[in-house]
Amino acid sequence: MASSAAAVVVIVGSGLIGRSWAMLFASGGFKVKLYDIEQQQITNALENIRKEMQLLEQAGSLKGALSAEQQLSLISGCANISEAVEGAVHIQVNPPYYVPLVELVPHPETAPATVDRTHALMRKIGQSPVRLLREVDGFVLNRLQYAIISEAWRLVEDEIVSPGDLDLVMSDGLGMRYAFIGPLETMHLNAEGMVSYCDKYSEGMKHVLKTFGSVPEFSGAMVEKVNQAMCMKVPDDPGHLAARRQWRDDCLMQLAKLKSQMQPQ
User: Fold this and answer.
1) Could you tell me which residues are beta bridge partners of residue 92?
2) Distance between CA atoms of 28 and 64, rounded to whole angstroms?
3) Torsion angle, CA of 11/16/20/21, rounded to 10 degrees?
């Protein structure tokens, strides 16, 4: 693959996710062409990127070795797809700056070298790529997320726990551990290795799992109940939601800084 100094990456779409990808590739020293069908959309996106990079630099959270101005100089806009892809080594069609996971899902006819090249490219810009061995509905992250959401919904619907306390179980319980190690390593560490864990706890796990209910409908009175609880904490008007999202992103920024300082064993 060409060196990052000469390589060009095309981002198709200049919305929030597209802007985040542009920032990530620029942080790795790649030249980035940000494509969209409307020039005004591109202009707005480039201005948003400038403001975001400057804020990140001020907070000490800018990725990469280059300054904000140096990274900004690598990003340009283009409203012509033919011009955009000319000379490109990678085209990113559409996660973003603070959550580095990337799922790579090759088609059965995708050349292994293409997957290897994309994996290396993601690592180069600071992402954490994982390889799916075959396609599955929802990919891996969403399947895990939906499993948690489903049981969370059932626990609230069955009046086992309130919506607010349910969220605390994750944010002040499981989430703190899972920010650093996954569920399988958790099993491994919570006994004398994985074999020991399964010997000790498999029957108990299966007993509890058999009590799980059916897939929730996510509709009707239950939606109103959960919505009311969430709105007591964060009203659902644009201003409050935007402020809470910014707080969330600031927390993710600080967590990313902490994780970068922790040396993996």
Assistant:
1) 11
2) 6
3) -20
Tens digits of residue pLDDT in 209-243: 999 999 999 999 999 999 999 999 999 999 999 99
Spans of the chain below 70 pLDDT: 1-6, 90, 92-96, 263-265
Q: Return the pLDDT at 2.
A: 37
Q: pLDDT digit string (tens) for 174-187?
A: 999 999 999 999 99
Q: Which residue has the tokens 């006819």?
A: 109
Tell me the C-alpha to C-alpha distance, in Å, between residue 219 and each of 71, 141, 223, 227, 259: 45, 23, 5, 11, 38
Nearest-angstrom CA–CA distance, 65 and 20: 17
In sequence order, the β-bridge partners of residue 76 are 33
